[in-house]
Each structure stands twice: as C-alpha cells, then as structure tokens.
From TrEMBL:
It comes from Winmispira thermophila (strain ATCC 49972 / DSM 6192 / RI 19.B1) (Spirochaeta thermophila). Pfam families: Nitroreductase (PF00881). One of its GO terms (molecular function) is oxidoreductase activity. This is Putative nitroreductase. Keywords: Oxidoreductase.
Length: 169
C-alpha cells in the first residue's frame, strides 16, 4: 500500500532544537491550513503564530508547564471564530474544522522537514488572555513546530482489522 511519506513518517515530537523555521516555510504551513475544507466553507478559523520566546513561555505555563511546549520555536494556536454552528448531524463544526486545517498544517510541516506535536492539554482561558483572543472565541488546538532534537519514538499502531468494519460495526 502506498501512502504519502508525510503520513507514514509523522510522529509527535516533544524535543526541539532552537533553530527557527524560515518564514517561507511557516507561510507554506499556514497556507496548507488555509486551503483545508470546512463545514459549508465557513472557514471559521483564525491561526495565531507564536514565535516570541516570552509569549511561548507563557503558553508553556498555560499548558501546565509542559516544557516541550515552550521549547518549540513556533506554536500555532488554532482558534475558531464561530462557536455556535452545528452541522445537520448535530455536531459542532469548529472542532472538526480546526482539526482538519491543523492536520493539513502538520503534514505540510513534516513535508518541510519539521517535527510537530498537537497539544490539547492547556488552560484555555489563560491562553486566550496571553494571545488576546476575544472572549466569545475558542482556542481549539495548539500545534508545535520545530526541528526535532532527537529521533522520536514511533508508537505502535493498531492493524486495520482491529479498527475497520465494512458495511457494519
């Protein structure tokens, strides 16, 4: 089975060098998110790029002092601008839309030779305060970007037979 190398190679990186990704690389990563699909093409997102060390340290504190959060030279906060829209199936659209966009960013980052890690364990109100996110908006996910300091472990994945059903559960 042939897969994109970026999908096969992607792992969560929790140790970064201090080398900062070039601006054009970061812009291509953001472009990958911009091009993502969203419910009814609402594109109800805003991405905050965090590069200043003092701001990254504040995000690290808000992420319950997980050191690797502040170690990443770039953090992208995926925020929603519409917390109320529900799709016809009853699901809120923003967690799905932001996840799709940030997954595309993550795969582009891997393509660019960067390591990434999604972070969902943080005090959202503190992150919103640090980033001046409006009260009515949500910070859905953080994406860490940087050059890996070491080769991360590749966790074992379940075989398809364990997670796929055809035509029924």
């Amino acid at each position: 089975m042939e897969l994109l190398p970026e999908i096969a190679e992607r792992v969560s990186v929790r140790s970064f060098t201090d080398r900062v990704p070039p601006e054009d690389v970061v812009r291509r990563i953001l472009e990958a998110g911009r091009l993502a699909p969203s419910a009814k093409n609402r594109q109800a997102w805003r991405f905050v790029v965090i590069r200043k060390e003092e701001v990254r340290r504040k995000i690290e504190e808000a992420a319950f002092h997980q050191e690797y959060v502040g170690q990443a030279p770039v953090i992208i906060a995926g925020c929603t601008t519409n917390v109320e829209y529900r799709m016809p199936n009853g699901q809120l659209s923003y967690p799905i839309d932001i996840s799709i966009a940030m997954t595309q960013m993550m795969l582009q980052a891997v393509h660019e030779g960067l390591g990434t890690c999604f972070v969902s364990s943080y005090d959202e109100e503190r992150v919103k305060y640090v980033l001046s996110v409006p009260y009515s908006m949500r910070v859905v996910l953080l994406l860490l970007l940087g050059y890996p300091a070491e080769e991360p472990l590749r966790p074992e994945r379940y075989p398809l037979e364990r997670i796929v059903g055809f035509d029924h559960w």
